[in-house]
């Protein structure tokens, strides 16, 4: 009988390490050795699992080498954490494992730790082993899901992930440190194709799940957090926007962290990590307030080969307290693949190491449900015009069939305002001044419900925002003025007459005060998108008149 490979699990007496060690022992494919800092907790671990245990601190490299030499494990799994606090030499433990000729896995979700793990690539290849970081909910599971959802998409606009555990989930000190250590701390993410600075526990949304397991998960608060996804996904999927949110089930606790986040942002508090033990105690006091129902949701918005747009959603909901099992599931799958010899050598983040179909059987082994749904979505102009958009030339249709951030370039001329009323209105709106044959660039940031336009006439910029009003008609905001537009198509041109207007979106302008819009879009003799926009005051003074052509910009 072939002896089962040995797996050394560091942090075996913690939440995730304990669950993983028990799973390995239960599945009977490997022999587990539990490692932790204290003998007392390890004795309880050994009594529960029957597994061998050794005392080992993450920082004790000499002790690690002795254990590796004694037991010669097939792989070492680091479940200790929190990985963002591994000090000046965060990869010292992993490097020692790799140099000893053992495979290495960790469940890190610390952005810089996971993103920089490739530093050990040469050493891992030299020792013919695999070292994979982030084999957890993020980025291992989230990447497997994003790989699946982005299949057949020629363009990925956004990837949004949310993780919302139940309040009855057990939280160890290291887990609590990882959670509240992020509160109010700045981090970088990609939004609309550009790098932006956000803060932990900001930009809160309500998250709803469509799965019926137990009682439905609906209205859970979730705020931005810093995970490897926000750093690694934009390049992997060429995604214009990537975010990951996490939340607490009890609303008052979530709101308290939001408030504390502001204190950190205002530098009244440097960090909340010192409050971790206290927060853990408070959480245990109010554990019964919530449920044991937790979930994970990944949403990908993108464009198919036929130019249509879709939103693909994958959801996982776990009950009966099985939520904490989820981060450990990809480890057991990867261990099997390592044993089969199907994982290439080297060190890297866990992107593309696992497929969703490999994870599904593991999800089925706990009390959980998964769901996939695809919804067709229309850009703003298509939702307002419907089939009328198809009556326009291809260049115009393409111009208005956009999601995410796109850029156009071309040439234009602009006639400045006339009269006192025209000049006053032009100043309020911010339209371009007189110019002839100047280069123009247009940046469009589009969602299914809104479009933000930035027009740049040779350095002079002005902005407008388009959206649907409550009646489903188009409206455009220029500064404090909001115009209701009656779009119509005639002679292969799109016209933009003004129906009504409001100041600051609240004060209606009388009919006699409405500006005149003599504006249309079409194509020129070369088939390029062409615009001709003239706006006049009720007294026939010109506010603006600009016209020209645009084509998709070629960005370097």
Q: What best-fitting shape do the alpha-carbon axes yield?
A: elongated
Helix content: 25-40%
* Low confidence ranges: none
Structural class: alpha+beta
CATH superfamily grouping of the largest domain: Dihydrodipicolinate Reductase, domain 2
CATH topology (level 3) name of the largest domain:
Dihydrodipicolinate Reductase, domain 2
The Rg value, from CA coordinates, equals: 28 Å
Question: What is the overall pLDDT average?
Answer: 89
Largest sheet: 13 strands, antiparallel
- With strands numbered from the N-terminus, the spatial order across the biggest sheet is 23-24-27-28-29-17-18-19-20-21-22-25-26
How would you explain this protein's 3D organization?
Helix content is 28%, strand content 35%. Helix 4 (92-99) links the parallel strand 4 and strand 5. The strands form 4 sheets. It has a 13-stranded antiparallel sheet with strand order 23-24-27-28-29-17-18-19-20-21-22-25-26. A 7-stranded parallel sheet has the order 3-2-1-4-5-6-15, with helices on both faces. Strands 10-11-12-7-13-14-16 form a 7-stranded mixed sheet. The N and C termini lie far apart (60 Å). The chain is elongated and about 90 Å long. By secondary structure, the chain is an alpha+beta fold. The mean pLDDT is 89. It has 16 helices and 29 strands. It has 3 domains: 6-133, Rossmann fold (3-Layer(aba) Sandwich); 137-323 and 357-377, 2-Layer Sandwich (Dihydrodipicolinate Reductase, domain 2), CATH 3.30.360; 380-552, Lipocalin, CATH 2.40.128.
